[in-house]
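All the exercises in this workshop are built on plain-text protein records. A record pairs a protein's sequence with a compact description of its fold. Backbone structure tokens are a discrete shorthand for how the chain folds in space. Once this layout is familiar, the rest of the handout is easier to follow. As an example, a complete record with its sequence and its structure tokens follows.
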Amino acid sequence: MANHTFWLTEDQFARLQPHLPTDTRGVARVDDRRVISGIVHVLKSGGRWVDAPAVYGPHKTLYNRFVRWSAKGVWEAVFLALAKAGGPPAQVLIDSSAVRAHRCAARGKGGR
């Protein structure tokens, strides 16, 4: 069976790490690299949090980290910092396509 998991490389995580929050209280966070890789996997696959592979840890941890960091603006800050560091993109793509079908398009041709 093929390995269908996503993992950040050491270099990728090293670029992310300075932008992650350090103001944690109480119990220390679990492995950031594992959790962020799990979050990226779920977002890339378009699946549900509960369907995340067990190698990333509990799906509730992935969901909670994503939601909490979204509310704190962590993801936006990370993306802005990484975008500035990489320089201007050579190409920008925007996809706003939509496919619409009439309500009667659900049936096949031929009536009943």
Summary: The chain has a mean pLDDT of 85. Residues 10-105 form one domain. Helices lie at 10-16, 32-45, 59-72, 74-86. The chain has four helices and no strands.
